[in-house]
Structures are given as C-alpha cells and as structure tokens.
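Lecture 7, part B: from sequences to assemblies.

Below are the input chains for today's worked example.
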Amino acid sequence: MAQGWLQVATFVGVVIAMTPLLGRYMARVFGGRRVFLSPVFAPLERLTYRALRVDPAEEQDWKAYAKSLVLFSVFSWLALYLILRTQGIQPFNPQHFHSGPWDVSFNTASSFVTNTNWQYYGGETTLTYFAQMAGLTVQNFVTPAVGICALLALIRGIVGRGGAGLGNFWADLTRGLYYVLLPLSIVLTLILVSQGVVQTLAHSAAVHTLEGATQVLALGPAASQVAIKQLGTNGGGFFNVNSAFPFENGTTTSNFFEALAIILIPAALTYTYGRMVGRQREGWAIFAAMLAIYIAFIAVIVPAEQHGTPAEHAAGTPTAAIAGSTGGNMEGKEQRNGIAESALWATTTTVTSNGSVNSAMESYTGLGGAVPMFGLSTSEVVFGGVGTGLYSMLLFVLLAVFIGGLMVGRTPEYLGKKIQAREIKLVSLGVLFTPLAVLLTAGLATATRLGTRSIFAGIDPQGFSETLYAYLSQANNNGSAFAGYTGFVQPHAPGNVGAYGITFADLLGGATMVFARFIPILIVLAVAGSLAGKKVAPAGPGTMRTDTPTFVILLIGVVILVGALTFFPALLLGPVVQALTARLF
Amino acid sequence: MKGGRTALTALLAVIVFTVIFGLAYPLAMTGIAQLAFPSEANGSKLSANGRVVGSSLIAQSFSRPLLDRHGKPVLNSEGEEVLVPDKSYFQPRPSQTSYSGDTSAFSNLGPNSVKEREAVREAIGNYIHLNKPYDKSLTKADVPVDAITQSASGVDPEISQANARIQAHRVAVVRHLPLRTVDELISKHTVGRFLGVFGEPGVNVLQLNIALGKEAPIR
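Predicted structure of the full complex, as structure tokens:
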C-alpha cells in the first residue's frame, strides 16, 4: 500500500508541476502570440486559413461562433459515418473487413464526433486501418480542439470589455490543433512506440508459439492514435480492451506517460485561464477545487481495490499482499499496472472525460466501481475533458457565485461582471441538462426489454450498474464502460460477417452523446455572448472574492451537491448495494 | 459570414484536417517508427531456435493435449482436444480469450458475481493441483491473486514474482534443474517499476520460458 500511495503522490506532483509549464505556453498560443514552434507551424497555419478561405482576425459574435462550430461538427459526423459505411472499398485494409451494422456505425460516428469515444465496436476486429486513421484519429484531434474553442469563447466573454466579439472559431481551432495537440502527439507517439506500442500498416502477424501452436498478433498504426486518444481526452481504443492491451500500453513506462497525457491538458488549461483573465489566482482556485475532489476519489478507490471482492473472498483467496505479490482485486487488471496504477487510471480517466481504460471497470469492487460512477456524476468538471472540463466548471463557478451572492445578500459578480437572471437561467440549464439526459435514458433502458437486452451480468445490481454506467458515460461524453453492456453482437470475430447491432442501445446512446455534447456547448456560447456585452465594474469592499479557500470550498460543495442530489438514488441501487453486501448474485 | 460560406468553410476544414491528421500524421509517424524502433513498432517479436515464436508483450498458451491410458488425446463433447498446462513451462495468468492476440475482451465478471466465485475457485484448484506435488507446503493462502484471476487483456505477458517463485519448484523438478538456477532466471526476466516508482514488478513468462529452453532443452 505504501508503494501505491507513493505512486499516486508522485503522479499528482508531476501533474502540478506540469500545469504552469504547459498552461503558460497555451496562453501564448491562444493569445495569438509567437511561440517557439511558430517557425515550424506558422506557414502551415497561414496555408490552412487560405485553404479554408477565412480571415483569422475576423471577430465572431456568439451566434456566428456557434454556427461555425456546429456546421464543422455536422460535416465531421457525415464524413465519419461515410467512412464507417464504406470500409469494403478502402485502402489500408489488409484484413479485408467490411462495414459493420449501420446502427453501430451511427453510434460510433456520434461517439467520436462528440469526444466520447464510447466503444460498441471492437477496434481490431471490425475496423480498417483507413477508418482508424482517416476517421477516428481525425476526430480524436478535432474534437478536443472544438472543446478548447468553446472554452476560449467563454473566457473572452468573461474578460470582454463591452464588445460582442468572442474571437474566431477557425483560428482557435487551427491554432489548438497545430500548436498544442499535434506537437504533443508526435512526442507521445514516439515515446509509446519505443515502449512497444505498435505502429505499422502491415497485416496482423501469425506466429508459431514456442510449443508450435498458431497465435495471431493484431497489429496496426496504433501509437499515433493512442497518443491523441489520451491527450485529447478521447479514449477510444485501437484495440477492444483499450489501454489494457499490451500493444496499446505494454510497459510501466508507457502507462505512466499515457496516464499523464490524459490529465495534462485539462489541468494546464486552468493555468491558461488564469493568464487569460489576468488573475493567476483565479486559475489556481479552480485547479485546487478540482484537485481536492480528484484526490478524495483516489483515496477511496485504491484501498477499495486493494481489499478485493466478495466473490474472490468467497472462493477462498485471501487477496492480501504477500511477498512478491501486491494482492488485491486483480480480476481484469494487468500485473504490470497492479492495484495502484489501475485505480489511479480509473479515477483519472473518468473525471477527465477520457474514458480509456487499463483495467476492466466492470470487475472493480462495489465501492471501487462507485468512484468512477460518481466521477461521471459530477458532470466531468474535475479537470474534465479538454476544454469541456473547464467550461463546464466555469458554469459551476457562476452557480457558486450566485449562491454565494444569495448568502451574503449582494448582487453576484464574477471578475467584475454582474451575474443576472439571463446568465443564471442559462447556467442552470447547462448544469442540469446532462444529468437529466442520464436519468431519462438510463431509466428508459432499465424499464424496457429493449434496454435490458444489452446487459451482460443479469437482472441484478450489477446489471443495473452496467446500464447506469453506460448512459452516464455516454451523456457525459466520457466513453469508459462497464464493458459487459453491449450494443453490438459479433459471432464470428474477427470481421463483421453475421454481426448485428442492438438498435435501441446504439441509437439511444448515439443521440444522447450528440445532444449532451452540443446543447451544453450552445449554452456556454450563449453565456459567453451575454457576458461579453457587460461593463466591468470595479471590485468594491462588498465583492465576494473568488480566489480564496472559502470560495474553493463553496465550489466543491456545489459540484458535489449537484452530482450527489441527482444521482444518489440511482447509485444506491447499483454499486452501493454491492459495496454493502458480501452476497453474491 | 453568410450561411453558405460558413458551410463551405466547414466542409473544407473537414477535408483539410482529414488529410493532415488522418493521413499525413499517421503515415509520417509510421515511417519514423519503422526507422527508429523497427522491432517495437512491429510487435516486439521474440525468436528462439532461429524462428519467431511470439511477442514479448503478448502471453501465449503453454499447454499440451491430455492423453488417455493408451496415449490418445482425450476429446471434449465438441470433439476438440482437451488441453492441460504443460508442466515444464511457467504458466501465464488465466485468460478469458485463450490467449488470443487478435480478439481481446474482458471477462467482465462483477465483484458479487457467482460466476466470478466459481472461476476463481476453479483456478485456485487448478493451480494447487498443478504445483502442490512439487511444493508440498503450498496452501490456498499462498496462492498469489494474479495466478487465479483473469487479466484485463487476456494476454498479460507477466506474472507476479510470488507466482513465479511457486512455479519454479515444479519447473526445476520437471526439467532437472537446480532450483537456484531457475530462481536466477526469474530474477533476470523480472521487469521493474518505471523509475523505481510506477507500476508493479512482473516476470515476463515467454522470455523466461525461452531462457529455460536454452538452459535445459526438452529432448
């Protein structure tokens, strides 16, 4: 255990240290200033603007910004769906895969265009290399950039001095892609390849094992996709079991860098925020609130997994640490990751909206599995997705300011801007939309036979957990899963011959992801537009400060309260029941 | 911008970014990876006796057909040969995919699942049955968890050091090697933590078995 805590503490320390480094760099990038990579990427950037026929200096109001963002996403969806439906005629298809069922394609297209990366498909058994590269990898890049765009628009609304302009979507998108995501991905790809993450266009390799049996090794251009899948809080694996598969994450070194990549940009953006609003303490205050919740989650999940499960104990294994073995619940975990790195990853990936896994979430203990679910329930604001995490957290900040204002009886202000009825109405909608979507869809899926067809475990607490997790994950654009739950049946893997989708799960999930991504984004942009036009009032003695420990605690309280009040009843029926009983089902 | 113009820009953007991030980036990365890390980029393959036998990152099965009294393979109800662990090799962790290297899947057995209890119970029985004849003091309490639970990938290349030390008794006897020699090989093929801090140490089963083959070839 001590070794486990050392790993967690060191990891958190590295995250804290990296935050200002990358945060400062990104503030320069999004301020339109020169950075050390400008000589490399500025020519490509100018060429891109010319090809897109845009003027990067043209200011857009919130409606124009939103229109660009939505249209770009619509065309992205269409392009991805087209790619998924035409696998039979694609190059880079050494396995000769045909397209999968249409409803699974609908789900997958919706999943990747919304930065969710929910997987009903199995990567290595259903997709061509072309679809993985030109389809999925492209969305892995552009969706976090879109998240950053929405965040930048909100920040400019907060700091705006009375104009309507929120910046230019195309410039923000291009700069985020070229100066942040691409260089980091190149570096990470090379680190990962050096650790055995495969990167080739060759056909899967059949080898004769030491004993002469045949074993087929799935290969592919994985490293380039895994790098951006982690950095962009995407999470969709090249292989079915995602970052648990050794060709996607096969050493303790690759695991460290992938875990760091998951949280790196969302954490650093809080520093970028502080820079852009000109008050560094505001960024650190938000960072502190996120970090506190994150650490609390880790403090629960690590001992829970170390304890082992009722099923393991009933079978007669002690699951205690002995010399040469860490013990704990190792079902669905890899030896090299052990308990600490698996539990740390599970927390990191669910709070950040990444969703990639290095262990089987469904096999976690009741309490251990409740942590990722509660992480999802907090609407992905604990670091959260790239861009999405911070803009969602800023909605909570406005809500906390409003509640604080009510407590002290003053007009709520945030960074000099009055928060009035229009903003609070929008914020409430933004904060409540995703939870409502979860409860409605999970309820529908639990109550109907169409929904229960997707369950793997059985009609018991575990089956309910699977269902709730599926819609929590999809509505929060996370993508991690209790992977027994399925919308895809593939009797003859590898390949799509005879495969079919479970249409209800595919369509309901797909639609949930789309609405739960774009409705909050539109609300955020509307809030930005509304704030942009306001005058900045100088801070007076009665102004509630938002960079103090008091406010951080208030903010944590609001986040936990909204998540807890919305989801406690549902969580009680699933993971909490399992955590409280040693009974087997 | 007018509506039509924004739509055109959006369409162009999808095309431009598909070319850059969907083709140029992965293909360039593939080229660089193939030059800089040719072995790792192609699956970290291992050779023994001059031929490729697998990947250092992917576990494989070490089993042989169960034979009846007349030396004929026993068949199961579906007419397939019944396989049993090969005693002369270190055994990897249990796999829900029969060590498939191209169709990965989790077991997805939950914490309160009867199936999980049965799976673990059976695995403990198998492990003790396999190793107890060579390590008389072995009891349930000594069996390391990694030896009786299914890994996440189904092809976990490593086992815990405790697991390897127990199996060493069996392998040493079957191969007529001093236990110390086998233990030394285990130490040699143990992968440590990253920077001494992150992850857990593990013993690479395929590398270890290849090394055993060099030390004490079977026939």
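Note for the exam: Residues 14 and 128 of chain B are 58 Å apart (CA to CA). Keep this in mind when comparing with the next example.
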